[in-house]
Amino acid sequence: MGFFDRISQGLARSRERFTEQMNVLLDRGPDLDDDFWDGLEETLILADIGGPAAFDIVEGLRDTATRKALPDAYAVLDLLNERMASSFAEGGEEIFGGEPAVVLFVGINGAGKTTTVGKLAKEATDAGRTVLLGSADTFRAAAIEQLEEWARRANVEICTRERGSDPASVCYDTLERAESKGADLVLIDTAGRLHTSADLMRELEKVVNVVRKRSSLPVYTVLVIDATTGQNGMQQAKEFDRALKLDGVIVTKLDGTAKGGIALAVSHELDLPILKIGVGEGLDDLKDFDAHEFARAFVGEFDERS
Ligand SMILES: Nc1nc2c(ncn2[C@@H]2O[C@H](COP(=O)(O)OP(=O)(O)OP(=O)(O)O)[C@@H](O)[C@H]2O)c(=O)[nH]1
């Protein structure tokens, strides 16, 4: 299956819901009146892309419709996915772009951090990079084992300590090992925590600060969000960003939800690039993010004759 087809399949549920809601709007006719523009904004908000991104998209399309004297709603919808794509924050290429780096993965419990680190380790090793994993999730014994299993599969070295150890010490060990080994991509998994837990967020701040201070390589902090949590993902992103100053976001489980619009809401509102998307549990279901392909797969097509 082609790259776009896989993303399109992963976003099928989000697209179905969006198409259904758009068709309700189109049923009232294709005129470009105030009701259409209000309805379009509402439909976008219902698709989880958030108020600010919805407003931005509708204002942009409305302006184009006037300037180009677009004839009807279908002509506007032809431009929707490009407009949506341009509402995503840009950047982030440097994080997995081949330059040596240390990347910390943070997020709530079960978001998909460990799985994502494992998939990235495999991808980077296959691309010829020297990868080192660090398991700073010392809270859950199974998380250490899970990452060890991924390390075996990807044939990469991993730094761990026993359950209950100080996560900052594991990071310290990992960075020392990375230096002596000459690793050029260091991926550190952290324990899942709720963004509402002040103590655990403070602990994470400490871990990130230790890594930023100690590392001789650039350090990036990446939030992993489970798309099925929908609007709660926005709260998570705001709190993690406030505490850690994030560099980018990975959105997982897009295959299991109609709430894929959350990727755009978070990227637009917090000006954070989406780095990768998860569209399944398989080893190669972590995909590079392309705003144009994402928007095309999300919006689908609206045919006047259908
Ligand atoms: N369908 C689907 N499942 C996924 C995806 N990414 C991860 N998962 C599944 O989500 C579950 C949780 O993933 P983990 O990687 O253990 O999550 P975690 O964030 O490390 O969890 P904690 O260590 O508890 O914080 C696993 O069963 C993964 O297989 C995805 O893109 N699609």
TrEMBL record:
Coiled coil (UniProt feature): none
**Gene this protein is translated from:** ftsY
Give the InterPro entries listed for this entry.
Answer: AAA+_ATPase, P-loop_NTPase, Signal_recog_particl_SRP54_hlx, SR_rcpt_FtsY, SRP/SRP_N, SRP54_GTPase_dom, SRP54_N_sf
The segment(s) forming the AAA+ ATPase domain are: 99-256
| Domain Signal recognition particle SRP54 helical bundle as annotated: residue spans | 7-88
User: What PANTHER family does its record include?
Assistant: SIGNAL RECOGNITION PARTICLE RECEPTOR SUBUNIT ALPHA
Task: Give the protein family.
Answer: Belongs to the GTP-binding SRP family. FtsY subfamily.
Q: Name one GO biological process term.
A: SRP-dependent cotranslational protein targeting to membrane
Q: Where in the cell is it found?
A: Cell membrane; Cytoplasm
- The residues that hold GTP are 107-114, 189-193, 252-255
- The principal location of this protein is membrane
Tell me the HAMAP family matching this sequence. FtsY
Which GO MF terms are attached to this record? GTP binding; GTPase activity; signal recognition particle binding
Listed A to Z, the keywords are:
Cell membrane, Cytoplasm, GTP-binding, Hydrolase, Membrane, Nucleotide-binding, Receptor
A Pfam family cross-referenced in the UniProt record is SRP54
Occurrences of domain SRP54-type proteins GTP-binding (ranges): 100-300
Write down the SUPFAM superfamilies for this protein, in alphabetical order: Domain of the SRP/SRP receptor G-proteins, P-loop containing nucleoside triphosphate hydrolases
Q: Which domain of life is it from?
A: Bacteria
Quaternary state and partners of this protein? Part of the signal recognition particle protein translocation system, which is composed of SRP and FtsY.
Catalytic reaction list = GTP + H2O = GDP + phosphate + H(+)
Protein name (record): Signal recognition particle receptor FtsY
Q: What is its EC number?
A: 3.6.5.4
**Record's GO cellular component terms:** cytoplasm; plasma membrane
Protein purpose: Involved in targeting and insertion of nascent membrane proteins into the cytoplasmic membrane. Acts as a receptor for the complex formed by the signal recognition particle (SRP) and the ribosome-nascent chain (RNC).
This chain's source organism reads: Slackia piriformis YIT 12062
Membrane topology type, per the record?
A: Peripheral membrane protein
